[in-house]
Write a structure and sequence with these properties.
Number of helices: 25
Helix content: 25-40%
CATH architecture of one domain: 3-Layer(aba) Sandwich
CATH topology of one domain: Rossmann fold
Strand order of the largest sheet: 9-8-11-10-12-13-14
CATH class of one domain: Alpha Beta
Length: 719
C-alpha cells in the first residue's frame, strides 16, 4: 500500500503525538462508527461482507492500490483519497504497510482502526521495532491490535472483523460484552448455543495501544452492557485495570475473567501469543479478589456466569433451594453446592408444614428437595409445591430439569414442570434458574422462553453452581465497594540493576523492631561474649549462627534451642564453631510455646511491586503450601479474612484442648510488616518472617526468625 505525497507529513505528526501517552477521550467513533474504510485485498473483502451481515447502515469505503472494485464498491487508491475522514478503519495489509496506513489515518484524524496483521512483538526479535513504530505512527488515534480479528458490535449492527461470527447478539436491548486476547476464542464464544446475548465481542491482540482497561472503560459508558467477560493472557497496565475495575464494581457491572497462565508452560505460551506479561498468577488472584473481579476456569463457566449475571444479576447471599424429581440429582446437588461454597439451609417450619401436607408420607421434605414423581404431570400440584418451596428466605431457587431429546407427546410434561416453576418464581419474586445436568439437555425453545421471563437457563450443574457462587460473591463485593483500597503497585520502580544485600537475622529483626513487631530479647556477639550475653538475656536461651550465610539454619543445623545452663551453652557453642566455623552468634531468650506458627512475607513482583504473603509457618511451610497473597496497601479486614482462609485457622481458634491464639496481635503484627512496604519500599526487596509465633490469647506474638534482602547502597553492606 503506497502513500500519496499529501500525507507523508504523517511521520512528523506521529513523532509529536508520541510525546503524549493520552488516548482519545472516547472510543465511540471506533466502536460505533458512521463510516468505515476497509483497507486491503481479500481480508478486507471478507470484513466488508461481515460488516454488511451485521446490519451496518453507515457508509463503507474500500481502499486498494490496484483493484477497481471490492465487494461491489469502487475503490480508492489510498486512504488520503477517501471522500471523508472515516470514523473507523479495518487495516488488512501486511505488517510493514500497516504502519504506513495507520500513520496516514492518524494524520487525517480518523476515529481509530483495527490492525489485523501479525508479526509484531508477539514474534519477539523477529518483529524488529515494528510495534513501536506502529505506536508512534498512531499517535493519539486508538488502535485495536495488531494481531487481532477486530470487533463485532451487535448492539449497533457493526463489525470490523473478517471471519465468521455467531448470531448471538442481544435482541432485547441489553446483554454482555466479551474482551478477548484470542480471536479464535472470541469467535467460538460468539457461536455459543447457551442463550448468552452479546452487545460487543472485542479482540485485543497485542494491545500495542489499547488495552483491556480502555475497552472496559468504553463499555462502562454503555448502559446496555450488563456484564463484561474477558479471556485474558496478561495485564501490561495493571494500574489502569485497577481503576476501571473499581469503576465497574461501583457501577455494579460485573467483570468475569478467564485468565490463563496458572502453569509455567501456559504462561510461556500465552506470552508468545500476544507478547503480554502474564505475571504472577497468585497475585492476579489477589488483584481480582480485591476489585470484585470474578475468576472462572473454563470457557463454559465464563459463558454460564455471564448469562446468569445478565438475567438474574447479583445475589443477596449464598442460600440456595434445589428442586428435582430425582433422588440422585438431589444427592449430587447436595455435594456440589457445598463444594461451590453455597448453602442449602432447610425450609422454615411453615414451609415444611405446607409441603408435608401436599405429599404422601414417603416423601421427605428437605433441601435439596426430591419432590418425587408423585405430583408429576399434575400442573396445579407442581405449582403449589414450587410456590411453597420458593416462599422462604433463600436467595436463589434452582430447578434441575433434563429435557428429553426424543420426540414424544410425553415431553410436554417436562415443559409443564418448568412452567410451574417459572410461575412460582413470578409469584414469589425469588431469583430462579432452571439447570440441566448435561449441557445439551436444554432445547432452544426452552432457553429462549426462560430468558424472556427472567429465569436463567443454566447448562451443566458445575457451571451453574460456579455462576451462582460468583453472583453471590459479587453481591457481597458491591456492598463493600466504597471501602475497596486500590492496590498501590508500589516498589516496582526499584532499579533491577542494583545489587542486593541479604541481611542476617539480627539485622532483619532490627528492621522488624523498627516497625514495632515483637522480637525476642537478644544480642549479636562474638564467640567469646556468648556466655555473658546468655546470662544477660537469661536462661533458657537459643544460640544461633549469625550471618548472611546462615539463611536456612534448620537445614544447616545452625541453631541450638532451650539451652538451660552454661554447660549446655558451651557444648552448643563448640559445635557451631567447629562444624560451621562461624564467628558471630545470636543469643536470644526462648519464646514460650505458641498456639500456631505463621509465615509473613513481603516479596517483590516485577508487575505488582511488593506483595504480602501470609501462610502456615514453621519448618513445614513449603510442604504444606498453605498461603494467601495480598496486594498492598491492605486492610485489617482483608488480613483477618486471609488468616481465616488458611488451614492453620483451626489451630488459631483452639484445637484439641489448645487455648485460642492471640489473633488480634497477629493481625496487628502483619499490618505492621505490611507497613514496611510503605516506609522502606524503595529499598526493601523481600522479607520473610518465619515463624511468627502466635501465642495464647492475650500473650501476643513473637517473630522468632526473619530474613530480609535490601537494595545495596553504594559499596556498603550495612542495613
Amino acid at each position: 500500500m503506497h502513500l500519496s505525497t499529501n500525507v507523508k507529513r504523517v511521520s512528523a505528526i506521529a513523532d509529536e503525538a508520541a510525546g503524549s501517552a493520552a488516548l482519545s477521550p472516547s472510543l465511540d467513533r471506533l466502536l460505533a462508527p458512521s463510516s468505515i474504510a476497509f483497507v486491503g485485498g481479500d481480508i478486507a473483502a471478507m470484513a466488508i461482507r461481515r460488516c454488511r451481515a451485521a446490519g451496518f447502515q453507515g457508509r463503507i469505503y474500500a481502499v486498494h492500490p490496484s483493484r477497481e472494485r471490492i465487494e461491489g464498491l469502487v475503490t480508492v487508491r489510498d486512504v488520503a483519497n477517501l471522500p471523508e475522514v472515516p470514523d473507523a478503519a479495518f487495516v488488512g495489509v501486511n505488517r510493514e504497510a500497516t504502519v504506513e496506513v495507520v500513520g496516514s489515518l492518524s494524520a487525517m484524524g480518523a476515529g481509530g482502526c483495527v490492525c489485523y496483521a501479525a508479526g509484531f512483538d508477539e514474534v519477539g526479535e523477529k518483529g524488529g521495532n515494528l510495534q513501536q513504530r506502529l505506536v508512534e505512527a498512531a499517535g493519539r488515534m486508538p488502535v485495536i491490535g495488531p494481531n487481532c480479528f477486530g470487533y463485532v458490535n451487535y448492539a449497533d449492527g457493526c463489525a470490523l472483523w473478517p471471519y465468521l461470527f455467531g448470531d448471538s447478539g442481544s435482541g432485547d436491548g441489553h446483554g454482555v460484552a466479551v474482551i478477548s486476547q484470542s480471536g479464535n476464542i472470541a469467535m467460538n464464544l460468539s457461536m455459543n448455543q447457551r442463550e448468552v446475548r452479546f452487545t460487543h465481542v472485542i479482540t485485543t491482540g497485542n494491545q500495542a495501544i489499547l488495552g483491556p482497561a480502555d475497552y472496559i472503560d468504553a463499555l462502562l459508558n454503555d448502559p446496555r452492557v450488563r456484564a463484561i467477560g474477558m479471556y485474558l493472557e496478561g495485564l501490561d497496565d495493571a494500574a489502569a485495570f485497577c481503576q476501571v475495575a473499581l469503576r465497574a464494581l461501583r457501577q455494579r457491572v460485573p467483570i468475569v475473567v478467564l485468565k490463563v497462565g496458572r502453569t509455567a508452560a501456559s504462561a510461556e505460551r500465552a506470552s508468545s501469543h500476544t507478547s503480554s506479561l502474564t505475571g504472577s498468577d497468585v497475585l492476579h488472584d489477589a488483584l481480582f479478589s480485591r476489585l470484585g473481579v470474578l475468576r472462572v476456569d473454563s470457557l463454559p463457566a465464563l459463558l454460564e456466569t455471564l448469562k446468569f449475571l445478565d438475567i438474574v444479576g447479583p445475589l443477596r447471599g449464598r442460600r440456595v433451594v434445589s428442586l428435582s424429581c430425582s433422588g440422585g440429582e438431589a444427592a449430587i446437588m447436595a455435594d456440589l453446592t457445598a463444594a461451590h461454597g453455597l448453602d442449602t439451609p432447610q425450609f422454615s417450619a411453615a414451609q415444611v408444614s405446607e409441603l408435608e401436607a401436599q405429599f404422601p408420607g414417603y416423601v421427605t421434605v428437605s433441601n435439596p428437595f426430591d419432590y418425587n414423581t408423585s405430583i408429576w404431570g399434575d400442573q396445579q400440584a407442581l405449582e403449589r409445591c414450587f410456590s411453597s418451596s420458593l416462599g422462604g428466605e433463600h436467595d436463589l431457587a434452582m430447578l434441575v430439569d433434563d429435557h428429553p431429546t426424543v420426540e414424544s407427546p410425553e415431553v410436554s410434561e417436562w415443559f409443564d414442570a418448568v412452567e410451574a416453576f417459572v410461575s412460582a418464581h413470578e409469584r414469589t419474586g425469588m431469583p430462579a434458574a432452571v439447570v440441566c445436568t448435561i449441557s445439551e439437555l436444554m432445547p432452544d425453545i426452552l432457553r429462549r422462553g426462560l430468558r424472556e421471563r427472567g429465569v436463567a437457563p443454566m447448562q451443566g450443574l458445575g457451571e451453574a453452581l460456579t455462576a451462582a457462587s460468583a453472583a453471590a460473591c459479587y453481591g457481597q463485593r458491591i456492598q463493600q465497594a466504597d471501602a475497596v483500597l486500590l492496590p498501590g503497585l508500589k516498589g516496582a520502580s526499584v532499579d533491577a540493576v542494583h545489587s542486593s544485600v541479604l541481611l542476617d537475622e539480627w539485622q532483619s529483626k532490627q528492621l522488624l523492631a523498627s516497625a514495632a513487631v515483637a522480637v525476642p530479647r537478644g544480642r549479636r556477639v562474638s564467640a567469646g561474649d556468648v556466655p555473658a550475653a546468655a546470662r544477660e538475656v537469661g536462661f533458657p536461651v537459643a544460640l544461633k549462627a549469625c550471618g548472611a550465610g546462615f539463611a536456612h539454619k534448620s537445614e544447616q543445623r545452625a541453631v541450638w534451642l532451650a539451652l538451660g545452663n552454661d554447660e549446655q551453652l558451651q557444648k552448643a557453642l563448640d559445635d557451631l564453631v567447629t562444624r560451621l566455623g562461624c564467628g558471630q552468634f545470636l543469643v536470644e531468650a526462648m519464646v514460650e510455646r505458641p498456639v500456631a506458627e505463621l509465615l509473613v512475607g513481603l516479596h517483590r513482583d516485577p508487575q505488582f511491586g511488593l506483595a504480602l504473603v501470609i501462610a502456615s509457618g514453621g519448618v513445614l511451610v513449603e510442604l504444606v503450601a498453605d498461603s494467601v497473597s495480598l496486594l498492598l496497601p491492605t486492610s485489617e479486614a482483608e488480613v483477618r479474612s486471609a488468616i481465616c482462609r488458611l488451614r492453620v485457622w483451626k489451630l488459631l481458634q483452639g484445637y484439641r484442648g489448645m487455648p485460642p491464639a492471640d489473633v488480634d496481635a497477629a493481625v496487628a503484627a502483619i499490618l505492621a510488616i505490611a507497613g514496611l512496604a510503605e516506609t522502606r519500599g524503595e529499598e526493601l526487596l523481600e522479607l520473610d518472617v518465619n515463624p511468627l509465633m502466635v501465642l495464647a490469647k492475650g500473650r501476643g506474638v513473637m517473630a522468632a526468625d526473619a530474613l530480609a534482602r535490601i537494595v545495596k547502597k553504594g559499596d556498603s553492606d550495612e542495613s
